[in-house]
Amino acid sequence: MLGCVLRKMCWKRTGARRGVCTRQPAPRVRFAPSPTGFLHLGGLRTALYNYLFAKQRGGAFILRLEDTDRARLLPGAADAIEDMLEWAGVPPDESSRRGGDYGPYVQSERLPLYSQTAAALLQTGHAYYCFCSNQRLDLLKREAQRSGHVPRYDNRCRRLQPEQVQQRLAQGVPAVVRFKLASGAEPFQDMVFGWTRHEVAAVEGDPIILKADGFPTYHLASVVDDHHMRVSHVLRGSEWLISTAKHLQLFRALGWTPPAYAHLPLLLNRDGSKLSKRQGDIFIQRFREQGVLPETLLDLVTHAGSGFDNNRIGRRLEELVCEFNISKITTHSALLDLDKLHEFNRVHLQRRIEDEEKCAVLRDELRQRVLHTHGSQISDRAVLEPLYIQRVLELRKGHVCSLRELLNHMHAYLWIRPRVTRQQLQEVSAEAENIAAAVIQLVASGGSFESTEHLNTELKLIASRLKHTKYSGMMRVLRLALSAQQELVNDEGF
Ligand SMILES: Nc1ncnc2c1ncn2[C@@H]1O[C@H](COP(=O)(O)OP(=O)(O)OP(=O)(O)O)[C@@H](O)[C@H]1O
């Protein structure tokens, strides 16, 4: 805790990493997903690091939806992304749902800003209209591929005379706006990757910034929005690192001060591929449905990567905020280890059970789940009482890793009368009826079951009176009668 306070003070008074003695304004950071799919673990980690960075320094965490790729929009994804951030405990301070001073927070509602900016760039000669048809662009691409070169636009329309441009516009020839890349690369200091330099004009043709349908591409839209939303730090996936040179050129052409950049290592699948919406990867909703707790996911994604002094298990959100240290983020991508999920959830579930307030919520949730799963089969309504549910939670904490597990067939005996036939019991022991009668008598006599030791002594006494059944055989009969399980209940995960 003390470390956290010191880090906050240190950040405010100095330029922290650079050691500059100036007071830093509270940062404004943004998470900017495209609503072309649901939030996955990789996106969640990038969102979380933005959140931690902002909260550690008393700043604002903005959610901006980048919905300019109209062909890939997925209905419902925008809402679902924000729902998942809220569920995960990292809600934005500003978003289209929450409002804020710098909205709209959805790019499709900001189109005039982009067209005005493109017009300004055309005006100052930093951009130009391009009338090249898709056919020509395809041809360029194929030619490059045939000759073993990386395909790139040849900047042909840069050379059009103003009259030619006017004429084509007047004729209604479809046009895009391209940004003139300057040659020569200016290095910049990335907060994670350090000094970086990318000679973009040497490897790429001039990029499109405004499409023929009036929608901006990512490059223009993100620069315009970062400027107008007063974003001070851009923390985004490292796949954008090489585009940053382009973005910095745009900032310069517009006369704007760029934000500081931190490119975050990506979370990868086991096969080394990037977790991505396009592959329908590991969506947060799915984990939630399976009973994974939000703090488990936060723990899992931070554990996979860097950004902390150590890799201990079981950090709560407040601890993540305190302990996050951007200078500890490494440049290499991290493999996601889903095998840890069970262990992490077990730890966090136990913590919730031990927290009075959170446990009350768990009890309600478990009750709902019990009703949903066993509903009409429940003959003893006492199993729905808070005290009973609390007892179940206490007994199974540290063993089960999700509430869902308490509803599987192995745990059905906790809620409904087990279905076992006399024959099944007799197959285990010919003295099954005697055992049952003796145990029923023990219960009816009001024997104290407060301690397991006491209960064991009583049960051993009953076993000693049996002729053909040992204590272990008697226990098998009881287990079968009470739980319909032949073997000990094994906790099996989600
Ligand atoms: N696997 C990942 N690990 C870490 N950050 C990621 C990962 N995938 C995406 N991000 C980051 O999350 C933010 C939002 O990403 P976005 O919504 O574009 O998701 P995406 O999975 O990259 O999408 P798509 O694959 O559909 O292009 C971006 O900053 C992006 O860099």
TrEMBL record:
Its EC number is 6.1.1.17, 6.1.1.24. It catalyses: tRNA(Gln) + L-glutamate + ATP = L-glutamyl-tRNA(Gln) + AMP + diphosphate; tRNA(Glx) + L-glutamate + ATP = L-glutamyl-tRNA(Glx) + AMP + diphosphate; tRNA(Glu) + L-glutamate + ATP = L-glutamyl-tRNA(Glu) + AMP + diphosphate. Residues 28-342 form the Glutamyl/glutaminyl-tRNA synthetase class Ib catalytic domain. Gene3D superfamilies: HUPs. Belongs to the class-I aminoacyl-tRNA synthetase family. Glutamate--tRNA ligase type 1 subfamily. It is found in: Mitochondrion. Pfam families: tRNA-synt_1c. GO terms for molecular function: ATP binding; glutamate-tRNA ligase activity; glutamate-tRNA(Gln) ligase activity; tRNA binding; zinc ion binding. The keyword Ligase applies. GO terms for cellular component: mitochondrion. GO terms for biological process: glutamyl-tRNA aminoacylation. InterPro entries: aa-tRNA-synth_I_CS (IPR001412), aa_tRNA-synth_I_cd-bd_sf (IPR008925), Glu-tRNA-ligase_bac/mito (IPR004527), Glu/Gln-tRNA-synth (IPR000924), Glu/Gln-tRNA-synth_Ib_cat-dom (IPR020058), GluQ/Sye (IPR049940), GluRS_core (IPR033910), Rossmann-like_a/b/a_fold (IPR014729). This is Nondiscriminating glutamyl-tRNA synthetase EARS2, mitochondrial. It comes from the Eukaryota. HAMAP family: Glu_tRNA_synth_type1. SUPFAM superfamilies: An anticodon-binding domain of class I aminoacyl-tRNA synthetases, Nucleotidylyl transferase.
